[in-house]
Amino acid sequence: MTTVRKTKNKSADTKAVHTLALDIGGTGLKASVLDISGNMVADRVRIPTPHPCPPETLVAALKELVKPLPSYDRISVGFPGVIRDGTIITAPNLDTALWHGFPLQNQIAKALGKPARLLNDAEVQGLGLITGHQLEVVITLGTGVGSAIFANGRLTPHLELAHHPIKGDMTYDEYLGEAARKKVGKKKWNKRVLRMIEILSVLTNFDTLHLGGGNAGHVTGPLPKNVRIESNDAGITGGIRLWDDRIWETVGGLA
To answer: What is the pTM of this model?
Structure first.
């Protein structure tokens, strides 16, 4: 059953260009329609991510997901994996090897009948969070761990941090993903989050670290002053920036 989350951001401007924003996650598929300023003009809708989830299953699920939403003129998509020119290179949290080489950007555009732009989900979320000043790192905590790095508002080449070792042979996904959180419990998982922050500080010398994703709300305790817990809605609202051509010229070539 589709679940709906209420939002306070409503727009009376039905004549402006509207953007369908899709946030694809390993656990849930979320969507809303944004006005030209990036505000939601409809309540966010969500359904569980199908498992297994080969490409055709995902596209069919997205078509069902967006049926309750109002009309739109274009589409922004955040996807949990490595992307090149609208084509999927990796999709580790969708349980299938069939994703490699799949032209998801074109297939979503074809299925929904509107032009689409596709970017890594953590990078889309980052576009909705960053201030555009200094070095900003975005980490999404959910089914797995997503990452994006911005220098003065410009996206740097994608770093697949999720599959890099953080402790012994354990990757960030294995150390901090949803399965690990449920296995080790809240207290130990939060200690791991603090350990990750220390490592990222040394690794990147970030000026600001944004923690987003569905599990960011489980982070507790004092954090460094330059670490911020962010709303997961940025995974949707950040989609408006994919249609700013000045930004897309910078990030599109890295996608």
So the answer is: 0.89
Q: Is the pLDDT of residue 8 over 50?
A: no
Written in H, E and C, the secondary structure of the chain is: CCEEECCCCCCCCCCCCCEEEEEECCCEEEEEEECCCCCECCCEEEEECCCCCCHHHHHHHHHHHCCCCCCCCEEEEEECCCEECCEECCCHHHCCHHHCCCCHHHHHHHHHCCCEEEEEHHHHHHHCCCCCCCEEEEEEECCCEEEEEEECCEECCCCCHHHCEEECCEEHHHHHCHHHHHHHCHHHHHHHHHHHHHHHHHHHCCCEEEEECCCHHHCCCCCCCCEEECCCCHHHHHHHHHHCHHHHHHHHHHC
CATH topology of domain 130-229: Nucleotidyltransferase; domain 5 (3.30.420)
pLDDT for res 12: 43
Chosen CATH of 3-123+234-254 out of 3.30.420.40, 2.140.10.30, 3.40.50.2300, 3.40.50.300: 3.30.420.40
Give the model confidence (pLDDT) of 205-232 as tens digits. Answer: 999 999 999 999 999 989 999 999 999 8
